Automatic annotation (TrEMBL):
Keyword Hydrolase: yes
Gene3D superfamilies: Isochorismatase-like
Domain Isochorismatase-like: 5-143
The protein, known as: Cysteine hydrolase
Organism: Paenibacillus kribbensis
CDD domains: nicotinamidase_related
Length: 176
């Protein structure tokens, strides 16, 4: 068995600065912190994906919303991969970093469910990472005009689970 890696997508200050709150925001933060603690204790590599978009004032480099959220601040040795699209692999160094680590399983969590998280899960599968875990209670989003955040998350867990990823709750995730 190769290396598993914790991949935290777009857990950035901007996600917590809006008037509208992420669905189950505090629970998701606590779950992300628990995942980080377990990964670090096991010596599992952690990669933070950081959305960077010069056309979006919330995600422009060095804006107030751009940094990784304080609640999950990376340690100095942990990798940060910048991306500018919904796909964490598209025109980024993520694939190269994963190959360097000998990664064969990604444990995926973060923001936003229907955008960057969904796209990255599908892309990872297409690139041959077919033993991935989506942490079902450690990703979130906002209500849309059509669906609540709760409905969006349930829908994506249902669509992605057992197709592109295996679903596990935070409490059931083990790093080795």
């Amino acid at each position: 068995m190769g290396q598993n890696v914790l991949l935290l997508i777009d857990v950035q200050q901007a996600m917590f600065m809006y008037d509208e709150k992420l669905y189950r925001e505090q629970e998701v933060i606590a779950n992300l912190q628990q995942l980080l603690t377990k990964a670090r204790a096991a010596g599992t590599p952690v990669i933070f994906v950081q959305h960077t978009d010069e056309t979006d004032e919330d995600f422009r480099e060095n804006s107030a919303g751009w940094p990784i959220a304080d609640a999950v601040r990376p340690l100095p040795h942990e990798r940060i991969v910048r991306k500018s699209s919904w796909d964490s692999f598209y025109q980024t160094e993520l694939q190269h970093v994963l190959q360097e680590l000998g990664a064969d399983q990604l444990v995926i969590a973060g923001m936003q469910t229907e955008f960057c998280l969904d796209t990255t899960c599908r892309s990872a599968y297409s690139l041959g990472y077919q033993n991935n875990v989506l942490v079902s209670d450690a990703h979130s989003t906002f209500d849309s005009k059509v669906l609540s955040g709760e409905q969006i998350i349930a829908h994506h867990n249902g669509v992605l689970g057992n197709r592109f990823v295996r679903l596990l709750a935070t409490a059931d995730v083990q790093f080795s």
